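Here is one such tokenized protein:
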Amino acid sequence: MTEQKCGLVAVVGAPNAGKSTLVNALVGQKVAIVSPKAQTTRTKLLGVAIEGDAQLLLVDTPGIFEPRRRLDRAMVAAAWEGAEGADIIALVVDGRGGLGPKVTSIAERIASRPEPKHLVLNKVDIADKAKLLGHAEKLNAVVPFDEIWFVSAQTGDGLPELKSALAGMMPVGPWHYPADQVSDATERALAAEVTREQLYLQLHAELPYASAVETEKYQERADGSVEIHQQILVERPTQRAIVLGKGGARIKEISARARVQLATLMERPVHLYLHVKVKEGWADDREVYRDMGLDWVE
């Protein structure tokens, strides 16, 4: 009998580095929402991956950036909180782009931390190889990384080696979650995230960042299906019109796609009802922060 191992891996980085895609790939199924829109992840979310006798608790954190608003500050605070007590900090960097001040600032901040630190250069399938090596050299001069990885969370390149290495570094200890559990998120929270993902994927630049999804009602039906009522918060009537679309066509499409995805994730039929509410200044409402799982920050 081999001893069980279990540990926490904090996945940090700038917005759009591919952190959520990486966590999903290591877990083996979707646990975090993904979109091309920067700062899609708002709260820290735990993905649970199994590799041999090791259970990896992967904390997918919001992208770290220079906060300007209360919501920004709450997201950045959640990111750094997610790194507290980690057995390994994995700095994920978009290997296709430049390093920029966001990345170097994060590197400088983790440099003095005591945890083992791994650099994960992502998107190697579409990145220039010379640029990747340059990034590794520059960042390693700032942070004495224990390991440097070149991976593609999208194609899976380099992920088996990364996952195996992380598992080997986990401390001996009992697993924190059952073998079939892939996330710490409740189905209620997952439902709100899946709808928010569809908002971003379908509306792109049309809908400003200032939108949120609240699950108002989550009820099990006698036939085993689940009934979910959600409201989409926007700040202005013009944004409400964008979400609704002509004749309500857009919100119907958002609902249909979110419902299919939720039924797959939950493995049962889902009845999803959406409505859009104009709530000016929702980003300064304590109750909305609580529902999103964010701490209120001044």
Summary: The first strand starts at residue 5 and ends at 13.
